[in-house]
Predict the structure.
Amino acid sequence: MKPALTRTLRNLQHNILAGIITIGPLAITILIFKFLLDELAKAGMPVIELLAAIFPENWLHHPVVQPILAIILILVMLYVLGWVTHLVIGRQAFQLFEAALERLPFIAKIYSSVRQLLDSMMAKKETSQRVVLVDFPIAGQKSIGFLTRTLTDETTGEPLATVLLPNAINPTSAFLQIMPLTKVTETDLTMEQAMSMIMTGGAVGPENIRFTQPELAAENKAKQPALSA
């Protein structure tokens, strides 16, 4: 009876884990999407409540219609704002707005940091933002990271890299590492591929990855004949 019970428990555990892995990404996507919709509804709700107070139509007071109208209103406002920003006058007005924010001591730091983060996250691979591998948490074990910028060691003049290492499954928390640029292994992964690997715990990803730096691979290959001799 015990072997049969053990097999049954193992199969049950295996199937439950398989179900969690299958539904996990979908559940996370739904939660993120629901969070965004809730925030859009909260942002537009004051305007909808004002319209409901002005116009006495019954449908404006419906608890289901109001959040939908609030979301549509915010999306339309974001679209119009983006369209105006792309115009010459809109760009000039936006530059004046940013210049005014830069004069505010505390707000300027927060705004500039968030703006740089969003710009780097939306940047293409040809820019400074790249998907890399670094030795973390110990040497010989690689973690996926995003090279956000490069620095210079003021003592030695050595180039340094700032790498953001998001945690698997939960990329909202991460480690920020500063290390020599020579310790960073660049990859051919896109941002989408890297995020897919992180969100699924490595279950979704490419078949091949550049794990070893080309320079180290060539050096090791050159040493092999000497070692065999």
About this structure: The CA atoms of residues 36 and 154 lie 43 Å apart. Helices lie at 2-54, 65-86, 88-102, 105-122, 191-199, 214-228. Residues 2-65 form one domain. Residues 124-128 have pLDDT under 50 and may be disordered.
